[in-house]
Amino acid sequence: MLSAGHSTKRCDPVPVTGKIHSFESFGTLDGPGIRFVVFLQGCPLRCKFCHNPDTWDPAGGMEKSVEEVVAMISSCRSFLRNGGVTLSGGEPLLQAAFSRALLEACSAAGFHTALDTAGSLPLEVSRPVIEKADMLLLDIKSLDNELCKALTGAENKHTLSTLDFCERSGKKVWLRHVLVPEWTLDRTHLSRLAEFLASYTCIERVELLPYHKMGSLKWAALGLQDPLETLPLPPPAETAEIRALFKEKLPGKTVV
Known about the structure:
With 256 residues, the protein is of the alpha/beta class. Helices cover 32% and strands 21% of the residues. It contains eight helices and nine strands. The radius of gyration is 20 Å and the shape is globular.
């Protein structure tokens, strides 16, 4: 029997919410199979080649609860049987609590999960999120720290720490690297990167992504000057040569 002064009112948990930029319900480029991709709002990097600068501002986007997002994903379950859910951005680690809760809920609902990240945050922030994902799509902007700072505004130490953590914990990684003419599309740089990656058993796949200009209109719409506006696209022949180089130096790993 409750004594006077005790309330019988139930205290329901406060829903975990996050800022979402957009959704893609039939993604084929962000992990194995067909993926439901959740693009989170906010990013600490300012990559000169970014094709989604509209995701940078953490105050933007639409607020959604974990339950709302999982309900949207579940409505597409029949398409995702051989795929799953990918959290992308922006930088999903910037919303660590929400990303962790969403990954946990997606796993509980039976979905394979992937985290698409540049490993931009310290491990003490990112580890609890990474541990909840089935795999990572990890973007190394540049192995050269000074080049990384010039290209993105940040050092590469958190990215490399993230990769080391995945190696220690056995977390599967698909490694991504953007080939930017006059920046990262350099044979010496790329040869060094391939040699660096060779010892990592957690890396199953390396995706060499040619720089493109599909984000140029977004820079203009935001009133921003695209810093690579006059940069040429990577020559297909040179891109093919780099892929051949990685395949030679990374036997046993898929290179695309």
